[in-house]
Design a protein that fits this description.
Radius of gyration: 19 Å
Shape: globular
CATH superfamily of the largest domain: NAD(P)-binding Rossmann-like Domain
Helix content: 25-40%
CATH architecture of the largest domain: 3-Layer(aba) Sandwich
Number of domains: 2
Number of strands: 12
Order of helices and strands: EEHEEHEHEHEHEHEEEHEHH
């Protein structure tokens, strides 16, 4: 991934293109503008933008040409699987890394994205939920699953009524992580009101129960977390997940070793 420097030369500047300029995409732009280490160059979107966009909007068929002239470091994607599949192979072939926060990919689509990333000189971070807190929940849920073999496990997500996928991709990912550890988990979703996002892992046993919960108060957290991840991709290559970025295995190893 290429890096650019600010005019002061004191801070490394990660340049960004946005895939999708809806509510979250616009929030990413606003957040990046307030930081000294990120700058949004343009957005890729096939839909009319209202109100008028403060940055250039590039249709998908002009994406490659625009990237060749502007050379963004990272694409941050809050769109939908069809848009990701249209843009990702070309972006990776150009050496442009991606932070993909889109959900709803099929197994075949995930494998295609993995193959494109592994064949490129760029990094592809697939993070259905980009926030560090939800990834800590996933880790704690796996630990609880190992330590509480008699407990039944149920994952529930709560989101705003317009969210299309139910259960969420994040809820399914928590359940998948538990299944990989040998534990079955049921999953359900609630769509109501304007809930930003709540994920709960319930461990119900014969004599007690534990609930591990994460709640997002505002969509700002997604913008901040996506920008932090984009900066963290510097020097990385291949197909990545948030566990690769957070590196909490190092913390666990330190605690286990008693250091």
């Amino acid at each position: 991934m290429r890096e650019h420097t600010t005019q002061t030369g004191d801070t490394q500047l990660t340049t960004i293109a946005l895939l999708g300029f809806g509510r979250v995409g616009r929030k990413v732009w606003e957040t990046a503008a307030a930081r000294s280490d990120t700058a949004v160059l343009f957005a890729i979107d096939s839909q009319p933008i209202s109100p008028p966009s403060p940055i250039p909007i590039v249709p998908p068929d002009r994406f490659v040409q625009t990237c060749q002239s502007t050379r963004p470091d990272v694409i941050i994607d809050f769109s939908h699987p069809a848009a990701t599949m249209q843009i990702a192979p070309a972006a990776l072939s150009l050496g442009i890394s991606m932070v993909v926060c889109t959900t709803g990919f099929s197994d075949d689509q995930r494998q295609t994205l993995r193959s494109c990333a592994q064949a490129s000189n760029a990094a592809f971070l697939l993070a259905p939920n980009i926030t560090p807190g939800i990834n800590v929940l996933m880790l704690l849920a796996k630990i609880a699953g190992e330590l509480l073999p008699e407990h039944d496990i149920h994952i529930t997500d709560y989101h705003f009524r317009e969210k299309a996928d139910c259960p969420s991709g994040t809820a399914k990912k928590i359940a998948d992580a538990l299944r990989q550890s040998g534990r079955d988990a049921s999953v359900s979703g609630v769509r109501a009101g304007s809930i930003v996002g709540i994920h709960e892992a319930l461990f119900a046993g014969p004599r007690d129960q534990i609930t591990i919960s994460h709640q997002s108060y505002t969509k700002d957290i997604f913008a901040h977390s996506a920008l932090d991840a984009a900066v963290a991709l510097s020097g990385r290559r291949g197909f990545l997940e948030m566990t690769d970025i957070l590196d909490y295995h190092r913390i666990l190893e330190r605690d286990v070793d008693g250091e």
